[in-house]
């Protein structure tokens, strides 16, 4: 962190992005926060999606939350079978309330073909 403050060097963003968010919020380092958020958004996968959702909620990062939601919509089969997602749903039901409203909004503005694809993908 000190290296960034004095030199603008962020050579280890991959290993520090999660921790950076807490620090950037506390010290109002907006430029560093933007860099960390961009990295977190670009590196989503099945293993880290739940952790990233928690970060998005904790620090009120709409961009990261939206990217996570899009990732979930695009990967329902893979995510449905993961232990991480089951735990996340149990422990963070408020996220899914917002997520459900976003899906409904998407369905209401899209054509029937898209609605059917989303509906079929999330069939339990």
User: Average pLDDT value?
Assistant: 83
Q: Give the strand content.
A: under 5%
- Domain count, please report it: 1
Task: List unreliable stretches of 5+ residues.
Answer: none
Radius of gyration: 17 Å
CATH class: Alpha Beta
Described by strand count, sense and barrel closure, the largest sheet is: none
Number of strands: 0
Helix share of residues? over 70%
Shape descriptor reads: elongated
Helix and strand run = HHHHHHHHH
Subunit arrangement of the protein: single chain
Structural class: mainly alpha
Distance between the termini: 45 Å
Please identify which CATH superfamily we are dealing with. Potassium Channel Kv1.1, Chain A
Protein name: BTB domain-containing protein
Organism: Strongyloides venezuelensis
InterPro entries: SKP1/BTB/POZ_sf
Describe the protein in words:
- It contains nine helices and no strands.
- The termini are far apart.
- It is elongated, with a radius of gyration of 17 Å.
- It is 79% helix and 0% strand.
- The mean pLDDT is 83.
- The protein has a single domain, classed as Potassium Channel Kv1.1, Chain A (2-Layer Sandwich).
- It is mainly α and 124 residues long.
- The longest helix has 17 residues, at 93-109.
- α3 (30-42) packs parallel to α5.
- InterPro entries: SKP1/BTB/POZ_sf.
């Amino acid at each position: 962190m000190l290296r960034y403050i004095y030199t603008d060097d962020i050579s280890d963003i991959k290993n520090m992005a999660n921790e950076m968010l807490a620090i950037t919020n506390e010290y109002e380092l907006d430029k560093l926060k933007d860099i960390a958020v961009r990295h977190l958004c670009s590196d989503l996968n099945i293993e880290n999606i739940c952790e990233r959702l928690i970060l998005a909620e904790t620090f009120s990062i709409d961009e990261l939350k939206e990217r996570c939601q899009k990732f979930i919509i695009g990967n329902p089969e893979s995510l449905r079978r993961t232990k991480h997602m089951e735990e996340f749903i149990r422990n963070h039901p408020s996220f899914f309330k917002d997520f459900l409203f976003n899906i409904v909004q998407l369905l209401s503005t899209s054509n029937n073909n898209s609605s059917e694809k989303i509906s079929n993908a999330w069939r339990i």
